[in-house]
UniProtKB/TrEMBL annotation:
Family, per entry: Belongs to the EamA transporter family.
Alphabetical list of Pfam families matching this protein: EamA (PF00892)
Gene Ontology cellular component annotations, sorted alphabetically: membrane
Record Gene3D superfamilies: 1.10.3730.20
Cross-referenced InterPro entries: AA-Vitamin_Transporters, EamA_dom, EmrE-like
Membrane topology: Multi-pass membrane protein
Protein name: Multidrug DMT transporter permease
Keyword Membrane on entry: yes
């Protein structure tokens, strides 16, 4: 498949739902592991491992990563933005809850919808799609309304880091869709992000004075392995492929499913109660996404 689509087909929807499901679990994995593995060192292990996996994948499939194609500068910029996003996420999870961080992180689709059409007119949203976008985000806020009303001291910094991470994620999408990266392979686009992040986060870890080690529990290594194999490699590779073939302003709002998956995992895995807010949020996000993906 090489042609760009103007709407999301069944294949795109299935990939999106699978990615969002894992991303909902991923925040829980990071939060529960950061107490044992320092945040920047945890990110170092994850991003370095994912970079190696991607190099092996490209070697096996014959994907050229180092051919000159005019993507170097936007690729490095996308990589730095991606690195900044994950630094904010990992540090933010030390200061605020996973649920609060997820809400602020997923303001990213608004940044995409506001900024991308100025550079790529084909990505412009119609009025009904703006209604869908707003409804979906409002539904997520409803889902977290109880916890958002009881912020603990020190959470403000974590919330600010989460909001900054959402902005950086949106800017990363903007760079990818409005530069030569839009025509690069998904593997090469992801390589810039993983490789730059793998180079930046160890420096951040050293500056923070984090202890480096490998003597962690089986749970910690399982968490890091899942974050690496499924999160930073498979799901992000799928996301890069989607950005190349489908409108970013249609894709980004589907990430609102991620915090709801996080809540559902809390219900299923942690035996948390299924509240009226969660049911209302699921309905609101569903309606919002239907409106957003309506074809003209």
């Amino acid at each position: 498949m090489t042609d760009r689509q103007d709407h999301l087909d069944t294949r795109a929807l299935l990939i999106l739902v699978a990615c969002c499901a894992f991303w909902g679990l991923q925040q829980i994995l990071i939060k529960t592991t950061v107490a044992e593995v320092p945040p920047m060192w945890q990110a170092t292990l994850r991003m370095t491992g994912a970079t190696v996996l991607l190099l092996l994948w490209c070697a096996a499939r014959g994907v050229a990563l180092f051919r000159r194609d005019g993507t170097l500068l936007p690729g490095l910029l996308a990589g730095l933005l991606f690195a900044g996003e994950f630094i904010c996420i990992y540090l933010g999870l030390q200061l605020t809850t996973a649920s609060r961080l997820t809400v602020f992180l997923y303001t990213s689709p608004f940044f995409v919808a506001l900024l991308l059409p100025r550079l790529v007119p084909a990505e412009r949203l119609r009025r009904v799609q703006w209604i869908g976008l707003t409804l979906a985000f409002a539904a997520v806020v409803v889902a977290f309304s109880e916890s958002l009303g009881h912020a603990q001291p020190g959470q403000l910094r974590g919330d600010a880091l989460a909001l900054l991470a959402g902005l950086l994620w949106g800017l990363t999408t903007l760079v990818i869709r409005s530069s030569r990266l839009a025509t690069a392979s998904a593997e090469k686009t992801l390589f810039y992000q993983l490789a730059v992040t793998a180079a930046v986060v160890p420096v951040a870890s050293l500056l923070r004075g984090e202890p480096w080690g490998f003597g962690y529990s089986a749970y910690a290594w399982s968490s890091i392995a899942a974050q690496t194999f499924i999160g930073a490699f498979a799901s992000y590779l799928a996301w890069m492929w989607l950005l190349r073939h489908y409108p970013a302003t249609r894709l980004s709002p589907f990430t609102f499913l991620t915090p709801l998956f996080a809540l559902l995992f809390g219900v299923v895995l942690l035996k948390e109660p299924l509240t009226a807010q969660l049911v209302a949020a699921l309905a609101g996000v569903s309606v919002g996404l239907v409106l957003l993906n309506r074809r003209g």
